[in-house]
């Protein structure tokens, strides 16, 4: 693909295409119809590009949306669509209007408990037994679940329907699991591994990319007198986790209770460890400086960190003008590197009462904070469709907000800019800044950009967090190496409190010191190995690897130090946007810009500040792309063996100027030092415009290297126009329309195409599939008419059941025809089926008249061009007159109505549009046929005949699109005449008591009049082109059959019928039952 195209948002044929914004506007309206029970459909008021329009009363009912700047994401078209979010909680009432519709899924978990225990040890309740079966879904269960899960699920993704409130990711698919309990479920070491592993794994298998875990309550201790936390909260009955030693005790406590078996928190990791799924956990609702073990799990198991998010609570300030940490809840502490803070106080969402009645209510807690974060992940996943959830997690962390609306820092924020805080963690997810790319790389960021053709990152990318993490990790490692596990200080063994765990032994929770030493050694060793591995891999310097065929544009002033590598696709950016280390291009292409007009995230015109210059190495199979109209400066530049140079336009306007005004444009790259290490012969090849598959069809490219400057230029190819690449009549018609109009979306799209893409565009748009379907229908109707005429005339005595005084008959015919038509520019297979019922009566001694009706189907398969399925209705009237036993005249009228459903993919270059269209086609026919009957006798029948048919063919207009381009096909009406001559005969005989007759028919037909279908193709806003189908010409027909008289009143006939010429091969079988009465 030529590079000017890649700056335009397109809908390339990928399974996760970039949102077409017209389609998006429809989808947000229809999202309100995902649930039932409303007399009035919700009409979306939000407008793309206008964030205020999204801030409806429903939006405002959850202040958390504004705190995360959600309306900014909605205004760019991202609301969770395509994302899959899991919620593990106390079920959800999926009949609630906020949670109903096809987006919500109850996940089933079935198995057996692997242990014996209590869900609510603090209440001596919720018993389960090893080997006991469980079989639950995410639907709310009366008497088992409470309202908690319904509230949490609403915050994640409730419908935006104009009522109540809506979720953060209101376009996502939500997969709900069931803890089998209420929110009193205790997340101490009391839950069954097998139950929770089964539930979490079921969500992962269903496709969930992030799983919310707001459920449960913390371990309790026996009240031994009032204690308060750092912010004055009552902590008297709660297991303390203020210090590292106290959190370490909870880790020991888990190890003691589960012994050699994995814990339910291990189950959370085991369910996702070989995937890209993220688990979200609440820090806890107590006034402690650290989270409980569940969110703190990666501190003791660092291999799990990339899969974990911990969530602390945020609240509004007293005057509601800003935000601050909710000090009554657990803070980030030792989990700060994977913690964010989110709205947690007075959150309005969906609820269910104990009898199953739906409603809305306001709750508080970190349980309410976590679904805001999980929902934010969903919105970001819809924005970054080529990132996995682990990478989206990093984007959310590094773009999190720490500022109030007035620009002041959150109260009590202590860390430096870009570094997590011990209370707040990274800050609050910011769905405005999060739209503009990562804020930092937290190691090696490998971006496989395939799901969408274009991504744009305008954030500045630094590595402040990595630098701080390195400082802290190396200090910890040095302390460990110097002092071993004694670096952790004294042990908290649980001797100064009694855990309220339902065990009557008040010492059952106390940890043996030797066990504590062993368990500390285990996790210290894990932490040390993880830090050393990061040192060895250079992961304390952020780096980017660009893979995938898509185009990434970076415009930030970026200072990450780990380097940039291009392996595939295209990377564009300012000279200061690639960090401070070298850029290595091993495949794909790199281009440095001095400006960029961001329409993707609507930042507008951006200009390079050249704060530092990129150092670039173009290696074997890598390409440096000079962008015309850009004069840029770089540092050191090396062209190694196998390196290629190319040039492309920045925008369509440049190419228009070159093509229409015969101008030329150029761009330059000025290096402080340019080393050209290519062999001379390769240099010549690389700097000469040898036509390649992705070269411009219409433009000449030239690249030269002189001293420290590379110059690329574009000019119009001599003696070349759009028609130069048209290889048939329809293609030339489209090319001429482009050339003569020279404007509009299609012109803009085709101007930068390669020769291959331009030819393919002509071939796709100029396909005569619809026209040749009409041709096929004419052939099928002629065959159907032959069947009706044949039964009406009758050849051979086996046709007639001899009943005295009989002057009326009914008949039934089944027809099947199969064929291939190679008319025009598309080859088509056809299947035609019809069932007819008719009745006829003798209206005079030598004349009979009949009526018939029927139904059937047609299938037209044009292979790569598409297919059409049709439901057909047939009606008609006919008559036969015998003129003095010398001649017979057969005449009538038929009408066929086809209700067609067409499916085809249109291509404009490498952009595609899958179109499904419904339209009608109609064929009305008059026919007359005369046969000479004087040669018939009792032994055989021979009838030469001649006939004439007139057919009138019409079809509706078709409307299709590729992206925002609209294509309309307006088919001309046709009047077709058919002249036919033929010979038919019959031979009657008997087999036992059954009268039979063999019959045969040969014919030749000539079609004239409007026998070549035509249509006007309206090319979006780029004019129109005449499209022609194949010409219906001469047909040779043959028929063979046998009729049997079953009794005096009934005959049955079976026959074969074929129609042929050099472009048509049509064969059919029909069976006719005729009853006299």
Automatic annotation (TrEMBL):
Q: Which GO terms describe its molecular function?
A: serine-type endopeptidase activity
Protein's GO biological process: proteolysis
Its keywords, alphabetically, are: Hydrolase, Protease, Serine protease, Signal
- Its EC number(s): 3.4.21.-
Q: Does the keyword Hydrolase apply?
A: yes
User: InterPro entries from the xrefs?
Assistant: Autotransporte_beta (IPR005546), Autotransporte_beta_dom_sf (IPR036709), Autotrns_rpt (IPR013425), Peptidase_S8/S53_dom (IPR000209), Peptidase_S8/S53_dom_sf (IPR036852), Peptidase_S8_His-AS (IPR022398), Peptidase_S8_Ser-AS (IPR023828), Peptidase_S8_subtilisin-like (IPR050131)
Please verify whether the record's keywords include Hydrolase: yes
Q: Which residues are in coiled coils?
A: none
Annotated active site residues, numbered on this chain, are 89, 148, 367
Q: Which domain of life is it from?
A: Bacteria
What family is this protein classified in? Answer: Belongs to the peptidase S8 family.
Q: Return the PANTHER family for the record.
A: CEREVISIN-RELATED, PEPTIDASE S8
Which protein, by its recorded name, is this? Autotransporter Pta
Which species does the entry assign this protein to?
Providencia alcalifaciens
Identify the gene encoding this protein.
pta
């Amino acid at each position: 693909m030529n590079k000017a195209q890649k700056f335009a948002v397109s809908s390339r044929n990928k399974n996760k295409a970039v949102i077409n914004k017209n389609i998006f506007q429809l989808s947000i309206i229809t999202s309100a119809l995902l649930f039932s029970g409303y007399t009035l459909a919700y009409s979306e008021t939000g407008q793309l590009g206008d964030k205020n329009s999204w801030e409806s009363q429903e939006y405002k009912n959850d202040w958390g949306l504004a705190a995360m700047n959600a309306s900014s994401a909605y205004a760019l078209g991202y609301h969770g669509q395509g994302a899959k979010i899991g919620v593990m909680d106390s079920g959800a009432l999926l009949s609630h209007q906020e949670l109903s519709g096809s987006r919500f899924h109850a996940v089933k978990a079935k198995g057996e408990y692997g242990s014996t225990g209590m869900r609510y040890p603090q209440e001596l309740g919720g018993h389960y037994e090893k080997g006991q079966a469980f079989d639950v879904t995410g639907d709310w269960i009366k008497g088992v679940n409470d309202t908690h899960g319904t509230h949490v699920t609403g915050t994640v993704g409730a419908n935006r329907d104009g009522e109540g409130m809506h979720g953060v990711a209101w376009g996502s698919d939500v997969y709900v699991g069931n803890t089998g309990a209420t929110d009193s479920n205790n997340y101490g070491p009391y839950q069954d591994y097998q139950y929770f592993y089964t539930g979490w794994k079921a969500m992962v298998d269903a496709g969930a990319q992030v799983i919310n875990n707001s459920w449960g309550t913390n371990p309790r201790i026996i009240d031994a007198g009032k204690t308060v936390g750092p912010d004055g909260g009552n902590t008297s009955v709660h297991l303390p986790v203020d210090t590292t030693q106290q959190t370490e005790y909870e880790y020991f406590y888990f190890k003691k209770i589960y012994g050699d078996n994995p814990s339910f928190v291990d189950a959370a990791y085991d369910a996702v460890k070989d995937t890209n799924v993220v688990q979200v956990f609440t820090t806890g609702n107590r006034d402690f400086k650290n989270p409980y073990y569940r969110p703190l799990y990666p501190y003791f198991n660092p291999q799990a960190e990339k899969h974990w998010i911990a969530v602390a609570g945020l609240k509004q300030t007293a005057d509601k003008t800003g935000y601050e940490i909710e000090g009554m809840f657990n803070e980030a502490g030792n989990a700060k590197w994977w913690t964010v803070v989110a709205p947690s106080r007075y959150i309005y969402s969906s609820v269910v009462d104990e009898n199953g009645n739906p409603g809305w209510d306001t709750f508080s807690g970190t349980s309410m904070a976590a679904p805001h974060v999980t929902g934010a992940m969903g919105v970001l996943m819809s924005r970054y469709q080529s990132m996995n959830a682990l990478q989206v997690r990093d984007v959310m962390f590094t773009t999190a907000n720490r500022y109030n609306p007035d620009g002041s820092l959150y109260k009590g924020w202590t860390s430096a800019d870009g570094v997590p805080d011990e209370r707040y963690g990274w800050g609050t997810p910011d769905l405005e800044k999060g739209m503009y790319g990562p804020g930092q790389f937290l190691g090696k960021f490998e971006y496989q950009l395939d799901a969408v053709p274009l991504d744009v990152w305008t954030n500045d990318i630094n590595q402040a967090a990595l630098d701080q993490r390195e400082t802290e990790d190396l200090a910890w490692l040095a302390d460990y190496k110097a002092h071993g596990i004694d670096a952790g200080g004294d042990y908290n063994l649980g001797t100064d409190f009694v855990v309220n765990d339902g065990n009557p032994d008040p010492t059952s929770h106390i940890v043996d010191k030797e066990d504590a030493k062993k368990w500390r050694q285990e996790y210290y060793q894990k932490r040390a190995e993880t830090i050393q591995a990061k040192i060895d891999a250079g992961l304390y310097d952020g780096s980017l690897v660009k893979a995938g065929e898509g185009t990434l544009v970076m415009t930030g002033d970026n200072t990450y130090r780990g380097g940039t590598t291009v392996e595939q696709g295209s990377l564009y950016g300012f000279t200061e946007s690639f960090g401070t280390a070298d850029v290595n291009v091993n495949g794909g292409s790199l281009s440095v810009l001095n400006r960029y007009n961001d329409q993707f995230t609507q930042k507008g015109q951006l200009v390079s500040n050249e704060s530092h210059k990129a150092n670039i190495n173009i290696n074997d199979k890598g390409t440096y792309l000079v962008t015309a109209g850009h004069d840029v400066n770089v540092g050191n530049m090396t062209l190694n063996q196998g390196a290629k140079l190319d040039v492309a336009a920045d925008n369509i306007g440049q190419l228009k100027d070159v093509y229409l005004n015969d101008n030329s444009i150029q761009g330059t790259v000025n290096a402080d030092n340019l080393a050209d290490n290519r062999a001379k012969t390769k240099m010549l090849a690389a700097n000469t415009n040898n036509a390649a598959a992705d070269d411009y069809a219409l433009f000449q490219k030239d690249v030269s290297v002189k001293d420290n400057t590379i110059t690329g230029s574009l000019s119009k190819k001599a003696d070349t126009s759009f028609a130069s690449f048209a290889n048939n009549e329809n293609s030339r018609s489209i090319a001429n329309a482009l050339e003569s109009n020279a404007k509009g979306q299609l012109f803009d799209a085709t101007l930068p195409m390669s020769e291959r893409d331009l030819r393919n565009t002509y071939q796709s748009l100029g396909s005569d599939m619809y026209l040749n379907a009409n041709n096929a229908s004419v052939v099928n109707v002629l065959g159907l008419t032959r069947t009706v005429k044949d039964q009406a005339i009758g050849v051979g005595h086996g046709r007639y059941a001899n009943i005295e005084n009989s002057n009326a008959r009914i008949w039934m015919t089944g027809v099947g025809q199969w064929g291939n038509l190679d008319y025009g520019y598309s080859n088509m297979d056809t299947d035609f089926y019809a069932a007819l019922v008719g009745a006829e009566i003798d209206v005079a001694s030598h004349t009979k008249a009949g009526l018939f009706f029927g139904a059937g189907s047609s299938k037209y398969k044009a292979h790569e061009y598409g297919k059409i399925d049709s439901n057909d209705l047939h009606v008609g009237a006919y008559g036969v007159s015998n003129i003095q036993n010398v001649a017979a005249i057969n005449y009538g009228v038929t009408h066929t109505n086809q209700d067609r459903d067409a499916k085809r993919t249109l291509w404009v270059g490498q952009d595609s549009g899958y179109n499904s269209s419904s339209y009608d086609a109609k064929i009305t026919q008059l026919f007359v046929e005369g046969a000479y009957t004087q040669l018939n006798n009792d032994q055989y029948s021979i009838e030469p005949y001649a006939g004439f048919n007139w057919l009138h063919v019409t079809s509706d207009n078709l409307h299709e699109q590729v992206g925002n381009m609209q294509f309309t096909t307006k088919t001309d009406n046709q009047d077709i005449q058919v002249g036919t001559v033929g010979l038919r005969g019959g031979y009657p005989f008997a087999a036992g008591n059954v009268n039979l007759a063999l019959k045969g028919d040969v014919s030749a037909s000539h079609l004239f009049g409007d026998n070549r279908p035509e249509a006007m193709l309206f090319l979006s806003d780029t004019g129109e082109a005449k499209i022609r189908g194949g010409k219906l010409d001469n047909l040779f027909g043959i028929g063979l059959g046998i009729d049997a008289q079953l009794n005096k009143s009934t005959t049955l006939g079976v026959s074969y019928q074929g129609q042929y010429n050099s472009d048509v091969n049509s064969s059919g079988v029909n069976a006719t039952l005729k009853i006299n009465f």
